[in-house]
Structures are given as C-alpha cells and as structure tokens.
Amino acid sequence: MTLALEMRTVGKRYVVGAGGCLGTVWALRSVDLALEPGDAVAVVGGPGTGKSTLLLAAAGLLAADAGTVRWFGEASRAAAVRHAAYHFAAARQPPARAPRSARIHLIDECDALGPAAAARLGEWIERRSGAGESVVVTARNECAAREVVARILMLRGGRLHALETPPSVARVAEPRRSAAAGD
C-alpha cells in the first residue's frame, strides 16, 4: 500500500543575522513520519519546538533543507498541492466538507480550541479517517491532543518520539489480606 504521507530524515533550519554575524537553528532534525491512508496522529511539543514547521513542510508550503517528503509516493510540490490541506485551527474549524483532492489534512494548534470545538474536531477527524484520509494535528499539550486523536508523538529537540498510549482499562483495587489469615 502506498503511504499517504512519508517524511524521511527531514531537516529544516532557520538562519538569522547579517554579514558575518549569523546564527543557525535546526527546527527539525532527521524527522521520520509515515502515515497510511486513514491514519490520525497528533504531534505535541512546547512553543518553538517545530510543530508548525513540521506541518508546513508536510503541506509542501515550506521546503525542507534535508530529507524527502512524499505524498502518495510523489515527491513533487505539485503532489502536495493536490493531496495536502493545511488548516490553522485557531482561526477556524476545518471545513465541514473536505476539499475534493485533499487526502491529507494538517491541522495546526488544535489546543487553541475550546472543549466544544475540540469535540467537533475529534468527530471531524474520525469522519475523515473513516473516509481513508490522513490527519495530523499539533498541540502544545498532550491532554488537548488526546481529546481529538489517540496516537500521540512528541516533538522534542527537532525529533519525533512516540508516547505511550495510556491504558484504557482502569485497574481495580483488590481487598487487602490480613496477615492473620495465614498468608
């Protein structure tokens, strides 16, 4: 099966300054991300960790300095235009109807939404995933991300790290046995 979105060893750096006084910051360092059609994932991290940079590169709106990005097996920016849709959640909800050609949705700053809007976003993501479209959302906080998707990745130091999914079944306390009962 062809991957919907494939990012391999993607790096993005920003250079600031002028003349002989330059500084370089790597926002993304060898990022690998692979999404099959229907996958939904959240990328969490603090301010300035590169979440928006990651989504902009995944949308083809920002060229990576290293690595490759492929949309349904194609590495051209024209493929990104055909397949990816970038949404800024703080500005508005993703559209009720997805663009016809978009099969990868990249939603930035989902934790800027209130609880009701987050619930609607979670339902929207579920419908898109059910239709075979892939979704990546970003959030600063893991709790906000868990309200809309189950799979969470942490962006730290310019690299993606998988986070454990909390168990869905709570443990039940067992009654204590007394020492006098012959244990």
What does this structure look like?
There is one protein chain. By secondary structure, the chain is an alpha/beta fold. The chain has one domain (5-163): 3-Layer(aba) Sandwich (Rossmann fold), CATH 3.40.50.300. 20% of the residues lie in helices and 36% in strands. The protein is built from four helices and nine strands. It has a six-stranded mixed beta sheet with strand order 5-6-7-3-8-9, sandwiched between helices. It has a three-stranded antiparallel beta sheet with strand order 2-1-4. The longest helix has 16 residues, at 115-130. It starts with a strand and ends in a 21-residue tail after the last strand. Residues 168-174 have low confidence and may be disordered.
Secondary-structure blueprint:
Blueprint: E1 5-18, E2 21-35, E3 40-44, H1 51-58, E4 66-71, H2 77-83, E5 84-88, E6 104-108, H3 115-130, E7 134-139, H4 142-146, E8 151-156, E9 159-162
Parallel strand pairs: 3-7, 3-8, 5-6, 6-7
Antiparallel strand pairs: 1-2, 1-4, 8-9
Q: What series of H and E elements makes up the topology? A: EEEHEHEEHEHEE
Count of all domains: 1
| Helix share bin | 10-25%
Radius of gyration: 20 Å
User: CATH superfamily, called what?
Assistant: P-loop containing nucleotide triphosphate hydrolases
Named at the architecture level, the CATH assignment is 3-Layer(aba) Sandwich
